[in-house]
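Give me the 3D structure for ATP-grasp domain-containing protein.
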Amino acid sequence: MPAAHFGTFDAEAWWRPDDLAALPSFTAGGETTVDAMDELLAGFCAPGDLLITRYPMAACIREPLGIPFEPVSLGNSGPIEPHILADSNLTQRLKNYNLEPYAVLPGLEDDRLPKASIVAEVNSKTWSNELVRALALPGAGRVVRSVDELVQAVEALDLRALVKDPYGVSGRALLEVSTPGVLRAITRVLRKQVEAGRRIELIVQEKFAKRYDFSGHLRIERDGSWQFLGVQGMTNRGFRHLGSGPLPPGVVDPGQYVETLARVVPALTKAGYWGPIGVDAMVLDDGTLIPVLEINARQSPGLLAVLLDRRATEHGLRGHLWQLELNVAPGKGITEVAKAIEPIAYRGGSQPGVCLLSGSTLAAPGGRVYVALFCPAEDIAQWRHRLVAEVIAAGLTPRGLTDAA
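Predicted structure for ATP-grasp domain-containing protein (405 residues):
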């Protein structure tokens, strides 16, 4: 049966309980750039699948992908699920498809999916942190539920601490606490919220000296069976994810890591979850493996990178997912980006190249686009520079450049 793909990429903001106190950095969803990321789900599509997005997908992105899926756009911002459920014709059509949402949000109740309340629970960093403790794995933090507990936990780490919201994602709602002044600022904001009736639930974790960030990916079936899909290295700017690609050889022992994931699966199954899983992890400077930092019970850019890499290896290449932040002049948009990369576009087979994956809504003053780089692993830096050079030559201005994963 074909699949229907749709979703909300800032799912954590909609799982988050309304009564939680927020760190000073926390802002909830509704960002236009994030809303438009649902077109990345085209990378999960197979021939005959249905892709439902908020905004129409530009032909210059859809056609080069070469996947004959059916695109449907609803023209709405924010969570897409209520708009799907409000369309009786569309919901009737979905009975003929397997449902493959990016994440299961509240309100998306269907017997073909796990319950949204369960999905929200296992996505909480509190839940994954307690699982790490139960399994006696390295890297566990401390869950705090009062301002005083927060202060004690940070001071116990000699101000080498990260404070995390249980539903933060990609560096949002995460603060590094390295000075007494930062700690005082956080506690001042939290105390005001507690006085207003909110509750505190945060994770305090040591800031590790890390060498590599990576993620492990698997899929759990409803009967509890599961499949390991692979690992992907991650490139971050600060705490924000920028791209994913193959890990250098020897960084992780695949057999050992799969054994660790095998210990995680029963807890997820017992909780009532099935579907895609991404596990964030890291290798420290001293070689220590932190196998489970947090668990993402949803699809992810890292999982997309796994699929891109699988397709690339069929042709002797490797797949890398990367993003570009661009300044855009009035009247310009994704068409100009597509024209810029035309000389180095991937056209299938063993010839390296670049494939545009998102950015249909790109407009002045600028925004984010995702690309796939298909090339030998050792040539990734060269292809990154070629991409930037073509974009600049076309009169577009990249900002915040970094190395790809």
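Residues 314-399 form a domain with the Alpha-Beta Plaits fold (CATH 3.30.70). Let me know if you want a second pass.
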